[in-house]
Every structure is written in C-alpha cells, then in structure tokens.
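Justification of computing resources. Each target in the renewal requires a structure prediction run like the one illustrated here; the chain below, 199 residues long, is used simply to show the kind of job we budget for.
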Amino acid sequence: VDAADEAAAVTLLLHPVWSVVLAARGREALHGCVVERDRRAVAISGPSGFGKTTAGLALLDRGWRLVTDDLIVFDDGGAVVPGPPFVRLPPDRAGGRPGGLDPGGKIRFAPPTAPSPTPLAAMVVMIERADPGLRRLAGIEAVDALLTQVYNPILTHPGQTKRRLDLALDVVRRTPIYAAPPRSLTGDGLAHLVEEAMA
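Resulting structure tokens:
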C-alpha cells in the first residue's frame, strides 16, 4: 500500500484493520455479503470470486437492502451489524450501476441500506466441491463450513480460536446453513430460501 495515497490506504486496509480491531475487542468476523428485506437477512459467504457479491446484487436489484458487504459482524443478540453503505464492484461487472471509481479501481455502488442490525434468516456458504443445488448443512459440517469463512484467518490475539468456534456454534444454532456450488445462486432462489427458512 502506498501510504502517500491516503484514500488508497483506507480503501485497501479498512476491512483488514477493522477485523483486527474487532479481535482486540473480543469479536470475530466472517467473510460475505448480507442483504435484507422486511427484517429478514440472508448471508452469502465463500472465497473471493465465487459470486457472493453477484448473488447479493441479484437481490438488491429486486428491492432488497444492503446490510454489509465483505465483513460480517454480529451484535450481542446475533444480528448482523450494518457495514459501510456501498458495494465495491469491478467496472466490468458493475452492469451500468452508478458510482465513482475508488482508489482501488473499483466502482462504489451505493444501494439502499439497512439502518440497524438485522437477524439472519439463512446463510449460504459457497463451497468448491458442493453438490449441485442448495443443500442444508447440520452439526459439525455446518460449523466447519463457517470456520472456513472467518474474515482474517491470521490469529492476532489470545483466545481467537475459541471465539471463532463459539461464533460458528452460535450462528449454526440460530440460523439454517446451506452449501451451494460457486456462482450458482440466483436472486429468485435466494428469496425462496429465505421464505422457506422463515416458514
């Protein structure tokens, strides 16, 4: 990072530094995109390039609101805390959405956002060798899927391993967890998933 360019430094370091500050305060974060409608949120998680943000955009285009993109943080009640009010998109994937280029060369698209922490109705983890379609995960399989999605895999503070396990266990207890192949999620499928999870 060229420290002489403050805007570039903030853009590139905001979430990594935020994750370390959270860890110093006893909180862990997951990696993903969270959108909501009618106080029902869905989180989409997976490695970079697997289609998290694309799936989130499909719901935003249907009138959903952004809760957070990239860094998922939970409050004491298990609801997702709103993150920065924008999604960063490569110019070739912006699809004509408005927004200026940031110092990292991505477009900052500012969709409608959720004003307060939102409970998760469902979470989908995109896994390289997942079975076709959506499959509900349970028990240790669900916990393991979440542990692969911690935001910063580097341990920087004492007790993080236990906190990460506790976070994964808590999310699995509260929320249905699903697996899906990369780049397989559609807006309609995700909307149906949330309706099914809330039934």
